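Entry 12.
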Amino acid sequence: MHQLLNAFKPTEITLPNGKKVLEPKSPVLLYVLLVLALTFFFIELTGFNLQTIQRRGHQFFVLLENMFPPNGNYAPSVWVPLIDTVKMSLLGTFIGAMISIPFALLASTNITKSKFLILFSRFLFSLIRTIPTLVTALVATFILGFGTTAGTVAIALFTFGFVGKLLYEQIETVDMGAYEAVESMGGNKSRAFAVAIIPQVMPRFLSNTLFCFEGNVRHAAILGMVGAGGIGLIFNTQLALRNYGNVGMILMMMFAVVFIIEVISRFTRSKLV
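Predicted 3D structure (tokens):
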């Protein structure tokens, strides 16, 4: 233990002018030991079993081998659910982002003076973000029935909480000079917000919405497993039937569509910010 502590003590070196100074040791070794200690602690805390990974981990590769080559004849059956997935992601993202705007305005301390409205709006954003999207979709299927409507509602709620929180934080950091100038000239709050605040937050708002849309496409694929429509429904069915060739085709087409959407979204966001 004493030798370990000495490993972190500064080293005394002598400069050319004869002056002695202390050179601190690199903290890399300390960081490595800290990470290892935390890793061991959390493995024990969660009951993570490395032996299970060693014993069963090769089954992942067996499953992948069964999926490839994918069954190309199944591709025509994938297009309609895949398009439904993209459509409900796009619509849900748009609805959620639009609804978040007025609530983000109410949650901003530099715009809204009522503490009750601020606390209520922020509580609503926190509540929506706390509920997992899969749970929201499951509840929506009980209320609205199976199909893309339930999935769209679940995605809209997730987008509302995610984009809304980022939006009100952005509104609180804008330059209020133009807003106050419009109000001093007799403009109401809505007019001042449209003229002075929206131009400042719009690029980041659109960028965050596009980023959320990217994630929603992937979320939508999972929502179908609880009956919320989209490609997740046929994915779950084919996986349960052990039609691994069909599963591989679904994954390949899903990957291609998500990759294209991410490339377009990334390019668009780079032009906005």
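Annotation: The chain has twelve helices and two strands. The mean pLDDT is 80.
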